[in-house]
Amino acid sequence: MKNIIFIHGMFQNPKSWKKWEDYFSSKGYNCIAPAWPLHEGDPVELRTNPPEGLGDLHLQDILVHIKNVVSQTQDPIVVGHSVGGLIVQLLLNQGLISTGVAINSVAPNGMLDFDWGFFKNSALIANPFKGNEPFYMDEAAFHGSFANTLDEASSNKAFYEFATHDSRNVLRDCMGDDGKLDVEAPHGPLLLIAGEKDEIIPNTLTMKNFEAYTDASSIISFKEFAGRSHYICGEPGWEEVADYVLNWLEQVDKA
Fold it and tell me: How does pLDDT run across 173-189, given as a tens digit for each residue?
């Protein structure tokens, strides 16, 4: 049985992967969805009573935890969303995993995109004047940036069930030295997925991320899904994305 690890991004926790875990379990995979530090539990409780020290959480704290999970799992495939997608790329770059899938991924090496949604949301989250105060996600912000392809009622439902608050330092670190990797180095198979309507990680940034990898001996693939937001792994039609990932993994396995 093959092992697959799902890594959530900011403003989510492992609950966001439940449908994917069920789907891949039905296809014969052993699924693991670890929580970032201070992200374990029910999202409603995490929003109501934010864990002490949440604002002090850094990318390296998460990486240490995820690396520990990877080290205890035999030859895992790793699928990550948003910041989780950057973690996938870092793990591949460090030779800690053999195959990775990065969905609507934060790009490495401080890559930027001239997209208003990207700049607006990045500035709001990383705002240096807020210090270590967590970013408190609410229904309006979630609908406006995270689940913008849903109607308001559906977005609010998704917010209630799955959204968490988060540390601004995580995104700051992603844009700094901790988010750097060698895009010219050989690496295991990597699939980068973009959502056409993503207001947080624009599709053009994911394409820039894809084009930055230059090693001709390595497998790297790009796929864009029309009409999808940053909430691509949970919004209606998530099955199409999961199907694509499964088929890509099977093709890579046969290569």
Answer: 999 999 999 999 999 99
State the residue range of the domain holding 233. Answer: 3-254
Nearest to 102 by CA among 166, 3, 6: 6
On whether the pTM is more than 0.85, the answer is yes
Total domains present in the chain: 1
103: Cβ–Cβ under 8 A, 6 or more apart, which residues? 79, 80, 81, 82, 84, 85, 193, 232, 233, 241
Query: 18-26 and 238-254 helices cross at what angle (nearest 10)?
Result: 40
Instruction: Name which of 48, 120, 92, 119 is nearest 191 in CA terms.
Output: 92
How many H-runs (helices) and E-runs (strands) does the chain carry?
10, 6
Instruction: Report the CATH number at residue 64.
Output: 3.40.50.1820
Beta strands 220-225 and 99-103 are unpaired
Which amino acid, one-letter code, is at 95? G
**What DSSP string runs through 212-236?**
H---TTS-EEEEEETT--TTTTTST
